[in-house]
TrEMBL record:
<keyword id="KW-0862">Zinc</keyword>
<feature type="binding site">
    <location>
        <position position="310"/>
    </location>
    <ligand>
        <name>substrate</name>
    </ligand>
</feature>
<keyword id="KW-0479">Metal-binding</keyword>
<comment type="similarity">
    <text>In the N-terminal section; belongs to the cytidine and deoxycytidylate deaminase family.</text>
</comment>
<dbReference type="GO" id="GO:0050661">
    <property type="term" value="F:NADP binding"/>
</dbReference>
<dbReference type="InterPro" id="IPR016193">
    <property type="entry name" value="Cytidine_deaminase-like"/>
</dbReference>
<feature type="binding site">
    <location>
        <position position="192"/>
    </location>
    <ligand>
        <name>substrate</name>
    </ligand>
</feature>
<comment type="pathway">
    <text>Cofactor biosynthesis; riboflavin biosynthesis; 5-amino-6-(D-ribitylamino)uracil from GTP: step 2/4.</text>
</comment>
<feature type="binding site">
    <location>
        <position position="92"/>
    </location>
    <ligand>
        <name>Zn(2+)</name>
    </ligand>
</feature>
<dbReference type="InterPro" id="IPR016192">
    <property type="entry name" value="APOBEC/CMP_deaminase_Zn-bd"/>
</dbReference>
<feature type="binding site">
    <location>
        <position position="212"/>
    </location>
    <ligand>
        <name>substrate</name>
    </ligand>
</feature>
<comment type="similarity">
    <text>In the C-terminal section; belongs to the HTP reductase family.</text>
</comment>
<dbReference type="GO" id="GO:0008703">
    <property type="term" value="F:5-amino-6-(5-phosphoribosylamino)uracil reductase activity"/>
</dbReference>
<feature type="binding site">
    <location>
        <position position="208"/>
    </location>
    <ligand>
        <name>NADP(+)</name>
    </ligand>
</feature>
<feature type="binding site">
    <location>
        <position position="176"/>
    </location>
    <ligand>
        <name>substrate</name>
    </ligand>
</feature>
<dbReference type="GO" id="GO:0008270">
    <property type="term" value="F:zinc ion binding"/>
</dbReference>
<feature type="active site" description="Proton donor">
    <location>
        <position position="55"/>
    </location>
</feature>
Amino acid sequence: MNENIDEYYMMEAIKLAKKGIGFTNPNPLVGAIIVKNGQVIGRGYHKRYGELHAEREAIKNCIEEGNKELMKGATIYVTLEPCCHRGKQPPCTEALIEAGFQRVVIGSMDPNPLVAGNGVEILKNAGIKVEGPVANKDCLSLNKIFFHYITKKKPLVTLKVAETLDGKIATFTGESKWITSSKSREKVHFDRHKNMAILVGVATVLKDDPMLNVRLENLEKVSNPIRIVCDTNLNTPIDSKLVQTAKQQETWIVTSIKEEKICAAFKELGVKIINDSSLIKVEKNGHKTIDLKALINYLGARGIDSLIVEGGGSINYSALEEKIVDQIQVYIAPKIFGGIDAKTAVEGQGVKLPKDAFIVENMELERIGEDLFIEGRVKYP
Ligand code: AOF
Ligand code: ZN
């Protein structure tokens, strides 16, 4: 019975944590609930990067509700192990000890090397009963991005594809609006809100002139991803939507072009030009390309914890070939386009033999409206 109660409150704390989606990156999503004698007396979640942690938000809420004294001997449910280091915020362990909790129930451990079990240890040493992990699977999936980033220092890279049943991402005339249903597109936009950055190749900019922003009606505030264009020769048109809106939504162009005169026009419009030589690969024939592996490390070092690769076929193949893709998300619409010239999701050279294929593991399948949605992790040969 007790276990079910703990699980119930942890699931409630997860719901609270999810309110922070899009705003806490590269920090985790965390929710906390304070319970005394079967009554919830305080709740909180981590609202925004750098601001109060969930535990202190819940304590603050508890005090504001006039329940300060009740905290003594209460239980606090936290989806992530409380921190014990001084970062942008003071250690949560100190706040929990000071408030006088009798019991702390956690949903997942914090792999952040600055915490990693030390939070639990400090609480236990202070005589607090620490229990859990409770609802661990849900707490782990809540922070898939954070757990990846904090251990690897690289963004979690998702390759996202919307295609027909016969694997086409456009008709032979190049039309692609729209393949999937509005319900699927809603999820795509929510994922853009959740992820810190979105990557396309210049071919997609030239062909589609996309906005790559978040268009969601049911959210009050959204967090638009940083738009990153791989554009070796700086062919992005100055009058493209990405460039023209760069002051409203961050736009980075990764290029080999260094001439200040050419770059200046983009910079004036708010575009960040990244022309670091370490991000350029020169092939045997002298052909220059963006080194995606180096780019991923570059982004990780700059606090980017999550990246969606959103086409086209050429960059999608390069991303797989350079082994930067961690997971793949495919939306399949119940339609068939046909056409030998109609584009497919992954182009490039392709693998030589079936045994050389990129393998997708732990595939999960979901139905979104009429479409199928598949998510899985990419395993490399
Ligand atoms: C959060 N929110 O609710 C919890 C976090 O720089 P700081 O002080 O904000 O510390 C960030 C680290 O604190 C983060 O990487 C994680 O290990 C831990 N817990 N962080 O942003 C929270 N509980
Ligand atoms: Zn904390």
